[in-house]
Amino acid sequence: MKAEIIADYSCEVGEGPLWHAMEQRLYWADIPAGRLFRYDPLTHHHELFYEGPVVGGFTIQADGSLLLFMEHGAVSILRHGNLEPVIDSIPGEEYNRFNDVIADPTGRVFCGTMAISDNETGNKGGTLYLLDLDGTISTVVRGVGISNGMGFSPNHKTFYYTDTLNWGIDVFEYNEQTGVISNRREFTRSGESAGSPDGMTVDADGNVWSARWGGSGVFKYATNGEEIDKLYIPTGAVSSVTFGGSNYTDMYITTADGHDKIQYGSHAGALFRINVGVKGVPEFTSRIGIQ
Fold first, then answer.
1. For residue 1, which of 288, 279, 289, 273 has the smallest C-alpha distance?
2. Domain locations in the chain?
3. pLDDT digits (tens, 9 = 90+) for 85-140
4. What residues have CB less than 8 Å from 109, skipping those under 6 apart?
5. Residue numbers annotated as active site
6. Torsion, CA 93, CA 258, CA 147, CA 193, rounded to 10
7. d(CA 77, CA 231)
8. DSSP three-state, residue 83
9. Class of residue 169 by CB neighbours under 10 A (exposed 0-12, middle 13-18, buried 19+)
10. Buried-most residue among 21, 74, 109, 115 (CB within 10 A)?
């Protein structure tokens, strides 16, 4: 099995691939450039459709619009090309930006931040928040290095959470009714030589797929945290992964070039696709401000 290049926009930090089930298109971002792209596998057409402020992550709303998570704690809805503010900023996030987000089964959004640069917030200046349906936001986890990939087990009882600077993925017990996560414990850890865990997704069997920045691949873990497979991607900085397509059998993988094609390879920053004979599940849509 070989990963094919779908689109190569030389993204500095290509991230957050997400299948838009209503449109049957794949969306992804180039975080620092504030660019958003989409791809239609039926027509093979891909395009840059939005340029604006930094977009650290996004969800698809139940009405089809996009919910963007940006710098300084700002959150906005992108609808018909226009931004509608939800949160202007979050106190304490002046030097940070959102980095990865995920909607939960009820439409809330877990959204994590990271330091934009080495400043007074230090290496643990990030926070994991929970954005509720009415637009209120609450702190869930403090002292985060780089808040990254998240996912839910098929029975919705387990929440996976990646802190890249901790070199691993942790698990929490998750209460779907309240959105509360508890009983944090280690799921898996990687050594520095194997690259840093980045974005992730969970397949229909409950296995975890974790993109590995600096690891040239996507690593597959069983529910007990055991590494059981690796998909090779021909570039160094592999940033995130999701399932898409009409049957959720296509795996889409984003990468980054970091302005260094020599280090990461000629296809760094491209969007890849591979079919590994595994089926994913639809990601949840957010319902922020939707009655």
1. 273
2. 4-274
3. 999 999 999 999 999 999 999 999 999 999 986 544 445 689 999 999 999 999 99
4. 59, 67, 69, 101, 102, 103, 130, 131, 286, 288
5. 198
6. -140
7. 34
8. strand
9. buried
10. 109
